Every structure is written in C-alpha cells, then in structure tokens.
Amino acid sequence: MQAIATRGRDPETSAAATPQTVAFYLLSLVAFSVAGFFTVKLYRAVTENGVLSSLVYPVFLVISMWTYVIHIDANYSYPYDMPSLAFFTAGLYFIYTRQFAPLVAVMALGTLNRETTLFLIGIYMLDAASRPIEDPHTPISERFDLKAIPWLRVFSLALLWLAIKVALVLHFAGNSNAENYNRVIENAFRLKLRLLPSLLNICAYLLPVVWIYRRRLTPIRFANYLYILPLWFAVMFYTGVILETRIYGELSAYVAVAVVLLLEDHVAEWRSSQKQTRGKISVRHQAMPEARVLLSEQEMVAK
Questions:
Q1: Following CA atoms 280, 271, 226, 69 in sequence, which dihedral angle do they give, to the nearest 10 degrees?
Q2: What is the pLDDT of residue 302?
Q3: Number of folded domains in the chain?
Q4: What is the predicted pLDDT for the residue at 104?
Q5: pLDDT at residue 75, rounded to an integer
Q6: Residue 52: what are its φ and ψ, rounded to 5°?
Q7: Where are the beta strands (DSSP E) in 63-152?
C-alpha cells in the first residue's frame, strides 16, 4: 500500500507524507481490504472441498501487489485503482452467487469510480448462459445457452452503466481529453518478441497459465468467465497501453481463486493416484500368503 500511495505523490514534493498521499493510502488500504474480503467469499462459494483455503489470500496479495507495483511501463498508480479492484471483485461474487440487487449497487458505485464495470455485464451474461454441465472438456459451443440469458436485466445494467458514463462525461466536459484516443497503432508496434515478457506479465504471469489450463478449471460456470478475456483485450488494445499490467488489475481476485482451484484439482488427482497405488500394494500383500500356501501344498504333493 505504501508503494502504491507514494506513486501518487506530487513529484515536486520531497515529503513522503502529504494530505494527498495519506488520503491515497487510506483509500487504497480500505479498498484493498474489501477486495480481499470478497476474494475469500468468492472462493468459499466456488470451491468444493476448500482444502487449500489458507492459500487464497496470500495468492491474491501476491497477484494484486505484483500487478499494481511491479511495472515495466507507466510506473504510476491512480486513486481509482484499488477501489476498482474492490468493486469488480464484489461484482464477481454477486454474479456467481446470483444476487442481482447487490450487483446493481456495485455497478452504480463502481461505474462512478471506473468504467471497467462494463466487463461485469459480459461476465453476468456468461454466467447466466452457462449450461449445468460437469465435464470441463466440454467444447465452448456446448457450454452456453443464449436463451437462458435474462435480457431485461442485461439491458438494465447496460443502461445504468451508460447513463452514469454519459453523466460523468457531461460533468467533466471541461477536462482535457488528451489521453483519450485510439491506441491501436501504438499497441500494434508494441507486439514485439523482445517485449513478450512484459506483454505476458498479466496478474503476475498467472492469467496466461489459467487460460492454458482452463479445461481443468471447475466449476465450469466459474471457468466460463474466462471467455470475457478476448473482449477485455480488444477494448484495452484500443484504449489502453498493453504494457501496463494495471489494465488487467481487476482480474486479480478471479485469477487468485482460479489458481487455488487448479492446485486443489492437482492435489485431488495426486491423492487419488496415491490411493490407487496403496490399493495395488495391499492386493499384492494379500495375494502373497495365498501363494505361499499354494506352494506348500504343491511341495507336499510332490513329496
């Protein structure tokens, strides 16, 4: 938190503690605590056994701090970064637990903070359209049923987001729009092999790993949220700087939970293989006395 807060201080001021940085620090601390709280709640709602529950918060801490502190480019932070993480994480929890009224509240407050709440609408649609299947290897064409999407609720969330966005644009019409432009050409020139370590530095390099192993991620409804990534990348490629790790920061909680779930799957698989191995050894030990008896009987007959 201190590293984040000191990035927001006035570069012309030598003092580390100013009213601005103190407010920045307190806001970030409260928001990060809220994000951690909802990360743990999301994990508890998703996990089947909770055997690695103690890892959830440490993994979330590493991913989020890596995302917002270790920067290759754009080495600074904004006051809305941590609140955005908190709102988005709360939104994920309310989507998975299918609590629409709290989700509307998160959308309203979160959009006032940052417009990335738009992606929550896409995740809400993916959640609603997810079929109740159990095989994680089910192809994407069979995972969704568009008829299950509550379109009226989707439109209401979209209208809410749009109304707040338009109101903010009108209210701050006098502000400079120098940073609001099409960055597609700029980002295209950043797609270089030597910049690959920076380009893949998404959620402490773990989001690409989660995407690769998405076929092993369960529950499938939770795994389906990953299909928001193409839209996320396209939007950020247009309006963001793809070398900035913080443009994926809101996904820190999701990635943390997904990583722990994948580890739990690995632990369950390892335990199953251990049981099978012990079972085979036990069968062999049981068969050995019978073999000795049979051998003794054959020796007596021979005599």
A1: -140
A2: 58
A3: 1
A4: 98
A5: 66
A6: -115, 35
A7: none
In this predicted model, what pLDDT tens digit does every residue of 219-257 receive, in sequence order? 999 999 999 999 999 999 999 888 888 889 999 999 999
What pLDDT sits at residue 69? 83
* Predicted local confidence at residue 274, as pLDDT: 78
The torsion angle over the Cα atoms of residues 141, 144, 148 and 150, rounded to 10 degrees, is: -110
Kindly give, in sequence order, each residue whose CB lies less than 8 Å from that of residue 267, ignoring residues fewer than 6 positions away: 51, 52
Domain range spanning residue 202? 2-302
- Which segments in the chain show pLDDT lower than 50? 8, 10, 13-14
Partners of residue 144 on adjacent β-strands:
130
What does the alpha-carbon distance between residue 286 and residue 288 come to, in Å, rounded to a whole number?
6
SS3 state at 130: strand
Which tokens go with 23? 């407010």
pLDDT of residue 14: 44
Number of H helices, E strands in the chain: 13, 0
The whole-angstrom separation of Cα 146 and Cα 188 is 33
Strand-pairing partners, residue 150, are: none
Cβ atoms of 77 and 8 closer than 8 Å? yes
User: Which contacts (CB < 8 Å, 24+ apart) does range 205-213 have?
Assistant: 206/63, 206/255, 206/259, 207/248, 207/251, 207/255, 209/259, 210/255, 210/258, 210/259, 210/262, 213/262
DSSP string, 18-81: -HHHHHHHHHHHHHHHHHHHHHHHHHHHH-SS-TTGGGHHHHHHHHHHHHHH--SSS----TTH
Residue 125 tokens read as 């649609």
The position carrying tokens 């709602």 is 45
